[in-house]
Design a protein that fits this description.
It is a single chain. Helix content is 24%, strand content 34%. It has a domain of 123 residues: Immunoglobulin-like (Sandwich), CATH 2.60.40. Strand 6 and strand 7 form a beta hairpin. The N and C termini lie far apart (100 Å). The strands form two sheets. It has a four-stranded antiparallel beta sheet. Strands 2-7-6-5 form a four-stranded antiparallel beta sheet, with no helix packed on it. With 187 residues, the protein is of the alpha+beta class.
Length: 187
């Protein structure tokens, strides 16, 4: 008899719980959200991480004399230079062209060439499985029957951390003379 009473009480408890749980359904639309609570206190400052290895990568300048871009739209001029793909990806690389005998008129590429009639695009490729880099300067506009010659081209490769610091100091990266002067102070 005790067993039957225990089973009846157990069944009644289960039915009571089932009724209680199913009767808790919400009726009607959801009310407005409550106010946002106060922000908690700021957490502790984490430990300072180890300084990364800067390595031996320093700014590099590559010079090419008597650069001629042959006539025709789509004509390419290739500049191969000794910077690995890894170094390239950690740097700002700028191609400057100069006209005149004293190299005082520098043009940054991509852009408009000397005389304002020729326009160029610039992109980079990697040779020998990333051991070397190549700048590809392509004529995209201008008189198709004219070549264009520059006295010198310079590719300047600046580590990103140094380029960022130069820009923070207000150095115009499109101005070869300003970039060159800034790099001399870092030697």
């Amino acid at each position: 008899m005790k067993k039957i009473i225990t089973q009846i009480l157990g069944a009644a408890f289960c039915i009571l719980m089932l009724v209680q749980l199913t009767s808790c359904e919400k009726e009607g639309p959801m009310g407005p959200a409550g106010p946002i609570g106060e922000a908690g206190p700021q957490g502790d400052q984490g430990e300072k991480g180890d300084k990364g290895d800067v390595g031996n990568f320093a700014p590099k300048v590559f010079e090419f004399e008597n650069v001629t871009i042959a006539p025709g739209i789509g004509t390419n001029r290739l500049f191969d230079f000794d910077v690995t793909k890894e170094e390239f990806e950690q740097s700002m690389t700028i191609l400057y062209l100069a006209i005149g005998t004293n190299n005082s008129n520098w043009l940054v590429m991509p852009g408009v060439g000397s005389g304002g009639q020729h326009a160029y695009r610039l992109w980079y490729a990697f040779l020998n499985e990333g051991a070397n880099s190549r700048a590809i300067l392509q004529r995209v506009a201008g008189p198709e029957d004219q070549s264009q010659t520059y006295t010198v081209a310079r590719i300047v490769v600046i580590p990103l951390n140094m380029a960022t610091a130069m820009q923070a100091k207000g150095i115009d990266m499109g101005n070869f003379d300003a970039v060159s002067a800034s790099l001399r102070t870092h030697e």
